[in-house]
Design a protein that fits this description.
Blueprint: H1 9-18, H2 22-38, H3 42-69, H4 90-98, H5 100-103, E1 108-112, H6 119-132, E2 137-141, H7 142-154, H8 158-164, E3 170-174, H9 187-196, E4 201-206, H10 220-232, E5 234-238, H11 244-254
Parallel strand pairs: 1-4, 1-5, 2-3, 3-4
The structure holds adenosine-5'-diphosphate and magnesium ion.
């Protein structure tokens, strides 16, 4: 087959479509004009187009992952005030947010602390950073996931449902200790923990330390085994701080720069 002497732009568009190269399709004409004008070598022209296609593909993939991750909006590392949690350092969190070291080995991250201390915020922010560097993440309230897995089990599809979660490098289970055994059949959680053990990572937030997890699982043996697996390869952040919202509210009340005329105005007690 001899190469065509003139390029049929319409035909080229169809071919690039068929090859699923939308960025090349959109950009080739402009780059061709530039290449002709500036006398680019053919390899540079082709290389430039290929680079654009790859970059676009990455961008679309991350966009897709972001939708799939179901992260709560607006919770970023930039908007997280590290001064409020002196027991964890920004450097430590940055290392976790880079992901490679722990996600590759299926290690876990556990965030403990009282309500309002920023566990969900930090978990979501770490999730977002990981998605942005190409990892697949799913953020879910633990109760929601337990419900889904229970439905799957009823339909004899628990194993398939757990396998489906394998595509996520990180599963973020928010408010783990809010699940209680009287409220739900929580042994599905136990199966999930067992299935991901040493393979796929989990990030768990809980306002109850392990001692209280007997309320989560049907029996103490199961609690022990679950905790054992979760902590075997885990980083634990103890975020024992006062509620951030409460702190902010209090600081606003006593905040500096308040005009003295307002000093006697009573604010509602909390
Ligand atoms: P938890 O999950 O521990 O109960 P949240 O993460 O839901 O706490 O935090 C409660 C609220 O306070 C959220 O709106 C969160 O964004 C905010 N918040 C908590 N800690 C911080 C922090 N260190 N910096 C900025 N915002 C914070
Ligand atoms: Mg929370």
């Amino acid at each position: 087959m001899s190469a065509p002497s003139t390029i049929d732009a319409g035909r080229l568009g169809i071919m690039l479509n068929e090859l699923r190269l939308p960025s090349m399709k959109a950009m080739w004409a402009d780059f061709a004009a530039r290449a002709d004008k500036e006398g680019w070598p053919a390899a540079r022209f082709l290389g430039t187009l290929a680079e654009h296609e790859l970059a676009e593909r990455d961008r679309r993939r991350i966009e897709r992952h972001l939708v799939e991750a179901r992260l709560p909006p607006g919770k970023t590392l930039d908007s997280f005030d590290f001064d409020a949690v002196p027991m964890i350092s920004k450097a430590q969190v940055s290392a976790v947010a880079a992901g490679d070291a722990w996600l590759k080995t299926g290690a876990n991250l556990l965030l403990f602390g009282p309500p309002g201390g920023g566990k969900s915020h930090l978990a979501a922010a770490i999730g977002l950073a990981l998605v942005e560097s190409g990892w697949k993440v799913l953020f879910t309230r633990t109760t929601d996931l337990v419900q889904k897995l229970q439905v799957a089990r009823r339909d004899l599809g628990l194993e398939a449902a757990i396998n489906k979660l394998d595509r996520f490098d990180l599963l973020i289970l928010d408010d783990f200790a809010y699940v209680t055994k009287d409220q739900a059949e929580t042994s599905v959680l136990f199966e999930l923990i067992g299935a991901r053990y040493e393979r796929r990572s989990m990030l768990i937030t809980a306002n109850q330390p392990f001692g209280e997890w007997n309320k989560v699982f049907p029996d103490p043996t199961m609690t022990l085994a679950a905790v054992d697996r979760l902590v075997h390869h885990a980083t634990i952040f103890e975020m024992n701080v006062e509620s951030y919202r409460r702190r902010v509210a209090l600081e606003r009340k006593r905040g500096p720069g308040r005009p003295p005329t307002r000093a006697t105005i009573k604010t509602s007690a909390d």
